[in-house]
Design goal:
heterodimer; A: alpha/beta; six-stranded mixed sheet; four-stranded antiparallel sheet; B: alpha/beta; 10 strands; about 25% strand; globular
């Protein structure tokens, strides 16, 4: 197995209060290049806190994040370190994650510029020195740097948009289109890992699966890893290789997505799956768990 | 005997500087007592406007035409005190987000009793009793002590139950629910859906249930109407709409959903959908 590109090592986050709330409770996992990891759970389980820790937006109270063998330092006032632009994020609300007052072309260009600052010229055809740098700096498991889109036009085409859209403002696009643009902007920065924090939950149901697919398949095609955070297991299981199920700050089940979907072992995962209503017209009410039900916080063995 | 709610050729236009834009283009719906009529559609299809216009809660720039019959009363012809006497009493509404539809600075008891005493001539203690009964009916079992608590002291699911209790407090015949479970976690949503079904059956309620989530729709609705561009394109029995949709749009909606008939079951289905260029 390849080296993991991003590791959470025994991460703990406490939010202040009386008593403090332990939002993330000794969580460890790895994301490998070309792997889509789905992180699912309900509100308050710690999944968004985990996303903030992974990107350096929040300092953990215990444990650490390791990106390509080096610890991720929390974001300071000076902005992100050049190196950490290899971790990119797509946020939940496409209305606020793009700058409303800038045309989308320059916003995608920002991503390309970030990649250039971090990796040097992106194309091996820029000269032998550049080729050497690309080979040197690019992650070893990311061999296809040459096929990476290198212009705004190419990126817009890659996410299924019209290159002529580059001069328009975010407000002229639908939610699904804006998430495609946000994906293009994030992937243009040539990340080693893309983190999506509920990137499809504000979209119409009919576009959710498709946008999730565009996001994850392009990430994998670039040789990067992805963490896809969502509360919607029915979509995540279609795009994720590996699933992590979080409950009360702990990962209570992990394993191949297909296996967990077909055969959940942890009682919480089982309850979560039973509660998902199926659009089959059967007028079958999802199973109700009695209020106040609690589940073991130990991880299920698979 | 109530005949439920009948919406007949409801049209809504929004007036603006450059003229008017049609939002609803002649919506027909019937919600019979003891049934849940689902209203599905994507954002901008007009499903929320249908609910708001029926209740008279549409924006001031909207112009309505058509009829909304509650028994023999046309709600579109009602205004002022006449509408006040009907709304909240005979037809009520439950909104998506209970943290904004409940008043954060008033106790749950005050919100319930104010509402009840506005419509029914009850003494303070009678209203309080009715409020406690109403909470018990929706599964808030702390009884009288719950009345003196504030909305923030309850969980999201409990808050939505309280919003339902307020809607039902004056025994309305018809309740319009606009995305009542969308803000809830799936495990909490399951409980609220079971509650709605139970109330419809036991109180013979007519419920217009608006949601974009076809999984929820399939679980709760007896009949399903699908809206697009301000029109109902399909209206039928739940099983028929999901397993043998008549309209092309319904078929394309289902094709894009995980777990639906003809929808996405495996990753390969999703790859195929992406290659065919799904609708957006």
């Amino acid at each position: 197995m390849s080296e993991p590109v991003l590791c959470a090592e025994d991460v703990v986050v406490d939010y202040p209060g009386h008593p403090p709330v332990r939002a993330v409770d000794h969580v460890s996992f790895e994301i490998h290049p070309g792997e889509v990891v789905g992180l699912v759970g309900e509100s308050g389980c710690g999944k968004s806190t985990m996303a903030r820790v992974l990107t350096g937006l929040l300092k953990p109270d215990g444990g650490r994040i390791v990106y390509r063998g080096r610890p991720v330092l929390p974001l300071g006032l000076g902005g992100r370190a050049k190196d950490s632009t290899g971790i990119q994020m797509v946020f939940q609300d496409p209305g606020s994650s793009l700058n409303p007052r800038r045309r989308i072309g320059p916003q995608i260009q920002d991503g390309l510029d970030a990649a250039r600052r971090r990796l040097g010229p992106l194309s091996a055809s820029d000269g032998p020195l550049a080729a050497e740098r690309v080979a040197d700096l690019a992650h070893p498991s990311r061999p296809d740097t040459g096929s990476r889109p290198t212009t705004v036009t190419q990126w817009l085409e890659r996410v299924g948009m019209d290159p002529k859209d580059a001069t328009r403002f975010p407000r002229s696009f639908s939610g699904g289109q804006r998430q495609r643009i946000a994906t293009a902007r994030a992937l243009a920065a040539a990340p080693d890992v893309l983190i999506g924090d509920e990137p499809i939950s504000s979209l119409d149901a009919s576009t959710q699966a498709l946008v999730a697919y565009v996001m994850s398949s392009l990430t994998v095609a670039q040789g990067a890893g992805m963490l896809f955070i969502s509360h919607d297991l029915s979509v995540v299981r279609l795009i994720a290789d590996t699933l992590l199920v979080m409950y009360q700050g702990r990962v209570v089940e992990r394993g191949p997505a297909d296996e967990i979907w077909a055969d959940p072992r942890h009682p919480y995962t089982q309850a979560l799956l039973r509660a998902i209503p199926t659009p089959d017209g059967a007028r079958r009410l999802p199973a109700v768990t009695p209020p106040g039900t609690t589940y073991p916080r130990e991880e299920a063995q698979r | 005997m109530s005949t439920g709610l009948r919406i007949e050729h409801l049209e809504v236009d929004i007036r603006h500087e450059e003229g008017t834009t049609p939002i609803l283009r002649g919506v027909d719906l019937a919600v019979a007592p003891g049934t849940v009529q689902g209203l599905a559609g994507e954002s901008g299809s007009g499903k929320t406007m249908t609910g708001l216009a029926a209740m008279g809660l549409h924006p001031s720039t909207a112009v309505r035409r058509g009829h909304v019959w509650l028994d023999d009363i046309d709600l579109l012809a009602c205004a002022g005190s006449r509408l006040d006497a009907i709304r909240g009493r005979r037809i009520a509404m439950v909104f998506q987000d209970p943290s904004t539809s409940l008043h954060p600075q008033l106790t749950v008891g005050a919100q319930l009793t104010d509402h009840v005493r506005h419509h029914l001539s009850l003494t303070r203690s009678q209203a309080r009793e009715r409020a406690a009964d109403g909470l018990a009916r929706v599964g808030i079992t702390q009884g009288v002590s719950a009345l003196s608590r504030y909305p923030h002291e309850f969980s999201g699911g409990q808050r939505q139950r309280i919003a339902i209790a307020i809607a039902l407090a004056c025994d309305p015949q018809v309740v319009i629910m606009d995305e009542p479970t969308t803000a809830l976690d799936v495990t909490v949503q399951a409980g609220v859906l079971a509650l709605v079904r139970d109330l419809v059956d036991s109180l013979d309620l007519a419920v217009l249930f608006i949601t974009h989530d076809l999984g929820v729709m399939s679980a709760i609705a007896d009949r399903v109407a699908v809206m697009r561009y301000g029109e109902v394109v399909e209206d039928g029995e739940c099983a028929q709409v999901f397993t043998a949709p008549r309209h092309e749009y319904t078929r394309s909606l289902l094709a894009s959903l995980p777990g639906a008939t003809g929808g996405l079951r495996t990753r390969d289905d999703l790859v195929r959908l992406a290659e065919e260029g799904g609708e957006e």
